[in-house]
Specification:
The structure holds two protein chains of two kinds.
Chain A (H helix, E strand, L loop, with lengths): L2 E5 L4 H13 L2 E6 L2 H13 L5 E5 L8 H12 L5 E4 L7 H4 L3 H29 L3 E5 L12 H21 L5 E7 L19 H13 L4 E4 L3 H9 L3 H4 L5
Parallel strand pairs in A: 1-2, 1-4, 2-3, 4-5, 5-6, 6-7
Helix pairs in contact in A: 1-2, 1-7, 5-6
Chain B lengths: L4 E4 L15 E4 L15 E4 L6 E5 L4 E5 L4 H8 L4 E3 L10 H6 L7 H4 L6 E7 L5 E4 L5 H7 L8 E11 L4 E9 L2 H14 L2 E6 L11 E8 L14 E2 L11 H17 L2 E6 H5 L5 E2 L10 E8 L4 H15 L7 E5 L14 E9 L3 H16 L3 E2 L9 H7 L3 H5 L9 H7 L23
Parallel strand pairs in B: 1-3, 2-3, 13-15
Antiparallel strand pairs in B: 4-5, 5-9, 6-9, 7-8, 7-9, 10-12, 10-14, 11-12, 11-17, 16-18, 16-19, 17-18
């Protein structure tokens, strides 16, 4: 049994990953904004085999809740979490983001500022415990800014860089940091996009995440083929890249 | 053909009809064979995101879960705790919502009735924004309309089911050879008294005095507990649509003969994992692809007991004469347990289920003949396995139709409903069944 803290527990990837943990018999502490959604997810996970499931309702963009929720998680789980899954984020509408600076700041707050603040506190606690794994869900979109979603890409690029720095800082303390870079996943976040063969179901991504935690991977693309795709995308010369419409 | 737009539902607490301004239909895993789960030109509300368990009491076997949970997921959760769905069809890849909408049946209809008979309660969301918990006690009319209601009374968000206790995952199964139709009726009558599960596979190419030749499967839950470490079976898959030329009289005949021979060797009693007993085709992924791009046509009728011997003989005779054999012809007697739905298909008598490779007009013509023969014998037809029945066939099959229609949700519709009630004719170009469909096994 492991103690698992899930931040953004009602996101599709988080819920699917939590199911894998529940079936393994791990104890879960779930944080999400909507009480009704949180309750639906928590009941399900308890039935799927999690020996303990506790929920905590919070808007993680409100940084003032962060200490309180980490204290609550430790108290409920009976110790500092062994796996911390950071799985919340906002895609934002490119059309709006291109015109509205406040909307852009909001996406940066949700995807970068709040995670940096929260993981700073988490890192301190895990380092003190001398063990644990932090899993950050970034995105392939952080590998290179595209004309279609520059703000989202920038927020995820920032998160990827932060996780990479955190990893380098924490490994001596015995704390492991895993960066997950999913491609397109069939979730409510992408409900408005036309689905193609590149879309992966959340369950497959969840399996990949837990496998990567088990083998202490530093960075994982999910599904795997995105590593090749993004290798190619990163190597397109900027002169050509700026002309591509995607 | 106009495609349906698809919207995913994720949260049972939220209104499935929010912002919907066209006719909609809840869609689960799409295992219905015809157009009863399709809604061309409209909206499909996909329930697969509603896949959470809500509550389970391992002392009483009462399970509450969201409508998009599949029977496979239920079995995974409850079988290790000693509980199994009271009624399962030939595939476990159907959702609870779909099982309710079609009021499905299984090999134990003669004992347990339909799936709906074991639904204790369900929550129904209607397009007027209302949300009601329906059961035999609360809103009983809406409950009766929704069970077997083809998704046309609104969207079911969750349901509460009564499961049955089992000792383990095994069936004490027995296979008996049946030389002809008369013997089927004898074996069936004798077996229904002693076995919870009974069904017969019929060689549809057998002619003359051999009509009705086949194998009779029967079984009861074994008392053997699960053997630790026994994994599920490996999975085969049909990788692409086979050219339809591979499916001709010769191959069907060869298949039927080989199947008969192989299974004849397995006559007698044995203990079998319930996956193989209930869901044989689930072991072959996308088996529907053997029918090629044009897919298959399904036919299932239920004929009243008195007329059954004559009507079934006539149906099998016509199929054999046409040489359009199907891989799976299934014969079973339905029992007297009343079905709770106004539009429930199962009723006392004998049911015959068949599938045909779709070869266009020739196949359609044969299937139309079968409808005529069955209807003359007082037969009723099953919307979940249909692409052909006429508005008259439908009305004749379901005498409580007018009562049902009072509970229709005005925002709901399906291709099937427009065909049998609003006079939009069958379109032969209709691809039968969704592209990714697995399918039903040998349960009628």
């Amino acid at each position: 049994m492991r103690r698992v803290l899930v931040l953004g527990a009602t996101s599709a990837i988080a819920e699917a990953t939590a199911r894998v943990h529940a079936e393994r018999g791990d104890a879960l502490f779930l944080v999400a904004r909507s009480p009704a959604r949180l309750a639906a997810v928590a009941d399900d996970l308890a039935l799927r085999g999690a020996p303990k499931v506790e929920g905590f309702v919070a808007d993680l963009n409100d940084l003032s809740h962060h200490r309180e929720l980490l204290d609550a998680a430790e108290a409920a789980l009976g110790g500092p979490p062994e796996v911390v899954l950071l799985a919340y984020g906002a895609l934002g509408s490119p059309v709006v983001l291109d015109r509205d600076p406040y909307a852009a700041v909001e996406v940066l707050n949700t995807n970068l500022v709040s995670p940096v603040a929260l993981l700073t506190l988490v890192a301190e606690r895990l380092a003190r415990a001398g063990r644990g794994t932090i899993v950050g869900i970034s995105s392939v979109a952080g590998d290179r800014g595209r004309s279609g979603n520059a703000v989202y890409g920038a927020s995820k690029a920032g998160l990827t860089a932060f996780l990479s720095g955190l990893r380098a800082r924490l490994w001596r303390a015995g704390v492991h940091v895993l960066t997950v870079k999913p491609g397109f996943v069939d979730t409510p976040m992408t409900a408005h996009l036309a689905k193609g063969p590149l879309f992966a179901p959340p369950g497959a991504v969840a399996q990949g995440i837990v496998r990567a935690v088990d083998r202490k991977a530093d960075e994982v693309y999910l599904p795997w083929f995105w590593r090749l795709v993004m290798f190619a995308v990163r190597h397109i010369p900027e002169r050509i890249f700026k002309q591509l419409r995607f | 053909m106009a495609q349906a737009e698809v919207r995913d539902l994720h949260w049972r607490a939220e209104d499935p009809f929010a912002g919907v301004n066209q006719r909609a239909l809840a869609y689960g895993l799409g295992r219905s064979y015809g157009d009863s789960c399709l809604n061309d030109g409209g909206l499909l509300l996909s329930t697969r995101g509603l896949d959470r368990f809500v509550a389970f009491d391992p002392a009483t076997g009462v399970l509450r879960c969201e409508a998009g949970v599949s029977l496979a997921e239920i079995i995974d959760l409850t079988l290790p705790q000693g509980w199994f769905p009271r009624v399962v069809p030939g595939t476990k890849h159907v959702t609870v919502g779909g099982a309710i909408a079609n009021d499905i049946h299984g090999k134990n209809h003669h004992r347990a009735g339909t799936f709906g008979a074991h639904v204790r309660a369900l929550e129904l969301c209607r397009s007027d924004g209302s949300r009601r918990v329906c059961s035999r006690e609360d809103s009983p009319e809406l409950f009766a309309a929704t069970v077997g209601g083809l998704g046309l009374t609104g969207v079911v968000t969750w349901a509460e089911l009564q499961l049955r206790k089992v000792a383990g995952p095994y069936i004490a199964a027995e296979t008996v050879e049946v030389p002809d139709l008369d013997h089927f009726f004898q074996v069936s009558a004798e077996s229904d008294a002693r076995f919870e599960y009974t069904v017969a596979w019929v060689d549809v190419l057998a002619r003359g005095r051999h009509i009705g030749r086949g194998l009779f499967y029967r079984g009861n839950h074994a008392e053997t507990p699960a053997r630790p470490g026994e994994a599920g079976r490996g999975r085969l898959s049909v990788p692409f649509d086979l050219p339809s030329a591979t499916l001709n009289r010769l191959t069907v005949s060869a298949f039927n003969f080989a199947y008969y021979r192989k299974n004849r060797r397995q006559r007698g009693e044995r203990e079998q994992h319930l996956d193989g007993f209930f869901f044989p085709l689930d072991g072959v992924g996308r088996w529907n692809r053997i029918y090629g791009k044009r897919g298959l046509l399904q036919f299932q009728c239920a004929v009243p007991t008195a007329a059954a011997p004559e009507v079934i003989r006539e149906l099998l005779g016509r199929i054999a004469a046409a040489g359009q054999g199907s891989f799976l012809a299934v014969l079973k007697t339905f029992g007297e347990v009343p079905s709770p739905g106004l539009l429930s298909f199962p009723r006392k008598g004998v049911t015959l289920a068949l599938d045909f490779a779709n070869r266009g007009p020739k196949t359609l013509e044969l299937v139309r003949q079968l409808y005529a023969v069955a209807r003359q014998g007082g037969g009723a037809f099953y919307p979940a396995k249909d692409a052909v029945m006429s508005p008259e066939d439908f009305a004749a099959s379901y005498p409580r139709l007018a009562e049902f229609e009072r509970h229709l949700d005005p925002a709901c519709s399906s291709g099937f409903w427009r065909r049998v009630r609003e006079g939009h004719p069958y379109q032969p170009s209709l691809p039968l069944g969704p592209p990714a469909a697995g399918g039903k096994g040998v349960t009628p």
